[in-house]
Design brief:
Largest sheet: 5 strands, antiparallel
Radius of gyration: 14 Å
Number of helices: 1
Structural class: mainly beta
Shape: globular
Distance between the termini: 42 Å
Helix content: under 10%
């Protein structure tokens, strides 16, 4: 998906740091090649230059629950990153309704 696609929305905004390692891809799709891998670092924030709908991503490792989103951000440094790679509160502040966070299922004592 290019920046000229009708589904692309220009938006200059701070996303903050990634909360866990994140693949940066060439497009808003899990099938798009990975062009970079970034690691969590509170001193490194990312800026979006736009966003687009893309493949839905489910991330189950966040301390707040299971994050689901089909929003992808085009980063100012180049490439695309799923909204699930950024803190849900930040993403919701930028695009209300763009992520859902469900509680982690209760783990049984046997697991």
């Amino acid at each position: 998906m290019s920046a000229t696609s009708p589904e692309y929305h220009v938006m200059s905004a701070g996303l903050g740091p990634v909360w866990r390692d994140a693949n940066i891809r060439s497009g808003p799709s899990l099938d798009s090649p990975v062009i970079d891998l970034v690691f969590p670092d509170v001193s490194v924030g990312y800026e979006a230059e736009g966003w687009s709908p893309g493949d839905e991503v489910v991330e189950d490792q966040h301390r707040g629950g299971i994050i689901t989103s089909s929003v992808w951000f085009r980063l100012a440094v180049g490439g695309w990153s799923s909204a699930v790679n950024f803190e849900p509160v930040t993403v919701e502040g930028l695009l209300a309704g763009s992520v859902t966070v469900a509680p982690h299922p209760v783990r049984s004592a046997a697991s």
